[in-house]
């Protein structure tokens, strides 16, 4: 293996050591999900406590001024502890992604996990880890071409799930994903949804298919509203 591959494997193992338990959040077994939620509450409490200590040190050292404040040992330690505890929690661990290709980011499986959790168990996600900005930024980040087959399948699953439900905040961002991973499989699933007895699925799937056939049309509120109006009078 190359040094880069070794480093990537080490980083992947580090992610799994910190957050491997989080896959329980999307488990089919309710008991497994409940156990993962207990673990999540624990790590979130640790992150909140660390943030509280950092904020306290920030207030105490504020008179020093910006540059001197960031030289204060206690302040720096409190900040380091806050950052480190966040690496064990969601959504904190997904913030401040390093620059580079998301397709090679070792945190990608956990970004997909976070999105799948919101898609499959929206009420639990809302109750325990709601963060619309993180949802939006992750959807936009993964909306690129040339993912691995495993990731493409996961993203296709997510688009299929989302079109079948009533609109939730930032769901419109999934149009970016649909365009990035456009395929016969995705279109086939959308066509099936458009013929279903679910009115949400029919409307959303038809709109996504309409946009996939028009790559130059922007996915804006006005475009959506005009499409709805045209469908109503068509």
Sum this structure up briefly.
The protein is mostly helical and 234 residues long. The chain has two domains: 107 residues, no CATH class; 92 residues, no CATH class. The chain is built from twelve helices and no strands.
Describe the structure in your own words:
The protein has 234 residues and is an all-alpha fold. It has two domains: 107 residues, no CATH class; 92 residues, no CATH class. It is built from twelve helices and no strands. α2 runs antiparallel to α4, α5 runs parallel beside α8 and α10 runs antiparallel to α11. The longest helix is centred in the first third of the chain and has 32 residues. The protein is elongated, with a radius of gyration of 21 Å. The termini are far apart. The model has no long low-confidence stretch (mean pLDDT 95).
């Amino acid at each position: 293996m190359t040094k880069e591959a070794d480093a990537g494997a080490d980083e992947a193992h580090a992610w799994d050591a910190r957050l491997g338990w989080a896959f329980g959040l999307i488990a089919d077994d309710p008991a497994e999900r409940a156990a993962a939620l207990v673990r999540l509450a624990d790590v979130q409490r640790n992150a909140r406590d660390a943030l509280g200590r950092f904020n306290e040190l920030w207030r105490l050292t504020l008179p020093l001024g910006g540059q001197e404040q960031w030289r204060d040992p206690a302040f720096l330690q409190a900040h380091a502890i806050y950052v480190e505890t966040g690496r064990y929690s969601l959504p904190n661990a997904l913030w401040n992604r390093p620059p580079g290709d998301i397709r090679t980011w070792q945190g990608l499986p956990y970004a997909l996990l976070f999105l799948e959790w919101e898609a499959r168990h929206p009420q639990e996600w809302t109750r325990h880890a709601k963060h619309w900005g993180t949802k939006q930024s992750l959807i936009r980040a993964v909306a690129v071409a040339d993912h691995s087959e495993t990731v493409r399948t996961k993203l296709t699953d997510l688009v299929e799930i989302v079109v079948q439900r009533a609109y939730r905040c930032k769901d419109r961002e999934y149009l970016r994903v649909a365009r990035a991973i456009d395929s016969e499989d995705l279109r086939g699933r959308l066509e099936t949804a458009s013929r279903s007895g679910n009115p949400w699925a029919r409307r959303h799937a038809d709109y996504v298919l309409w946009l996939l056939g028009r790559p130059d049309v922007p996915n804006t509120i006005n475009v959506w509203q005009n499409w709805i109006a045209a469908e109503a009078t068509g």
